[in-house]
Write a structure and sequence with these properties.
By secondary structure, the chain is mainly α. The chain has one domain (about 40-145). It is built from 6 helices and no strands. Helix 3 (about 40-60) crosses helix 5 and helix 4 (about 70-90) runs antiparallel to helix 5. The protein starts with a helix and ends with a helix.
Length: about 150
């Protein structure tokens, strides 16, 4: 009977004890995310996003969501948020330089230009093609830094 009690106690300890490796992994991921959020790249992108949010809030005092500039700002803020999420997921934070942040901000500005041009012209238009090519160049530079 004593042997059964010992086995039961030991199994209870293994079953109900927290998974230390899972806690360690979660803690490591959280630390890397926090490091990414304190990087120069994150700061560059969050600065631009903050400027745009302030501008958007100012516009919303007088205009509705259908106002073209409001829609454009919402689009740009969404693109910047995607970049912030990408930065947060980077594990090698030494790559998250100010230059990377500036490249990301400029690429988003160019993506907004493409979006605006595509409302007026087809993808075959030379202005649209040029704008898309600029976005590709910035995209390639960003990939090169992150690889």
């Amino acid at each position: 009977m004593k042997l059964f009690g010992i086995i039961f106690t030991l199994s209870a300890i293994f079953i109900y004890s927290p998974d230390v490796s899972a806690q360690t992994t979660t803690k490591t991921v959280t630390q890397k995310t926090n490091a990414a959020k304190s990087s120069p790249a994150y700061a560059e992108v969050i600065l631009r996003k903050t400027e745009l949010v302030a501008e958007l809030e100012n516009l919303l005092i007088d205009y509705t969501e259908d106002f073209p500039k409001v829609r454009e700002l919402r689009y740009e803020i969404g693109l910047l948020q995607k970049d912030l999420d990408k930065i947060s997921a980077v594990t090698d934070v030494s790559r998250l330089s100010s230059a990377l942040g500036k490249l990301m901000v400029r690429r988003v500005e160019l993506q907004v230009d493409v979006w605006t041009l595509q409302k007026q012209y087809t993808d075959e238009n030379s202005d649209v093609k040029r704008a898309k090519k600029k976005v590709e160049i910035y995209e390639q530079a960003i990939k090169e830094i992150l690889q």
